[in-house]
């Protein structure tokens, strides 16, 4: 542990409570090969346990149990399920607890999170869900960047809040309700099942049901907030000094009128961003209160991170910066490199190499393919949201991910080195 791991007060920084033991186990694995298996298992437990049994074996067992109890209590409060006898011959859809340590933008531990997730791939189309009713609108990364850019140019306040257990607020139509088993670790008598009545994470229809629920709520309670063109996730309200609505179809340039009230809201699944002028603060406060009366939300706060990106906003200077440092460091670590000690390179791809399907082996290496798919998915997220310098590389490598070679895997390692340098 170094001086950077300690606060000025002498206490250990929250981020180091996990990072330091992980580094110690990595060192142990390198110096003592016989202990590698033990070190790998302990590192996994320090990060995200796979099951409740694993969580109870960690040093954070109390925190994990609190998170699990909180999740299951929300099931009861929101009447997510109804206990039913299992019909003879009926197969249950399994559920499981997904445990994750959620980090803040600075890498410190924000909270221990538990989610009860259903195995949606076991649902039957036409029986457990309507295949025509699974679409859920999602704002494009360009839309989010545009909203942030406009908000910064107009010197608007930019706040953020989350809807807690958002999917559990959506009512599943009676003809789509399905039977499932409680997650492992929760004992129920034989022949007893859960009839799911609310949107459950992992179910095909949950995202669509929640999107429709929130959209209907907005139309009923805030008809003055108009959807921005074809963007169903963006709502805009503009009122003149006389409190009359301003025609959004009239081009006015990048400016607001004298004493005009403006609010721009963007909802991506359960993460809401609210940009507003100073004179509209009372309206936003009222909106937050009404939102909490219908759906429980986290307290509204000035934006610091959104959709995995770190956001720095200086309203007075009209400056706003975005970066995906957490995802960058995560990818570097995923590829087995250290951002502080490994040597980087200046280009994401080797200019002397050509990547094509001709490099693919005769038979698919499933383990290698899974590794490549994970790495490629992480890079796609980075390229779309915050690192356009990776777009070409992702496009080139994506042509060969169906049957990757070691040469292709080495290309992902090179990109990690490029991220180290940049």
Spell out the key features of this protein.
six-stranded antiparallel sheet; 3 domains; TATA-Binding Protein; disordered N terminus; globular; single chain; 34% helix
Write a structural description.
The protein is an alpha+beta fold. It folds into three domains: 3-122 and 172-196, no CATH class; 141-167 and 205-311, 2-Layer Sandwich (TATA-Binding Protein); 325-421, no CATH class. It is 34% helix and 19% strand. The chain contains eleven helices and 14 strands. It has helices spanning 16-31, 36-46, 52-55, 61-77, 141-153, 206-221, 281-294, 325-334, 366-385, 391-397, 406-421; strands at 81-85, 95-103, 109-118, 157-162, 178-180, 192-196, 226-228, 231-239, 261-268, 271-276, 301-302, 305-306, 309-314, 319-323. The protein has a six-stranded antiparallel beta sheet, covered by helices on one side. Strands 1-6-5 form a three-stranded antiparallel beta sheet, with no helix packed on it. Strand 9 (261-268) and strand 10 (271-276) form a beta hairpin. The longest helix has 20 residues, at 366-385. It is globular and about 75 Å long. The two termini are 25 Å apart.
Order of helices and strands: HHHHEEEHEEEHEEEEHEEEEHHHH
> What count of helical segments does DSSP give?
11
How many extended strands?
14
Largest sheet: 6 strands, antiparallel
Note the gap between the termini.
25 Å
Strand coverage percent: 15-25%
From the spread of the alpha carbons, the general shape counts as globular
Number of domains: 3
Q: Report low-confidence residues grouped into runs of 5 or more.
A: 1-17
Helix-and-strand structural type = alpha+beta
Q: Percentage of helical residues?
A: 25-40%
Mean pLDDT: 86
Which strands sit side by side, in order, in the main sheet?
7-8-9-10-4-11
Rg, alpha carbons? 24 Å
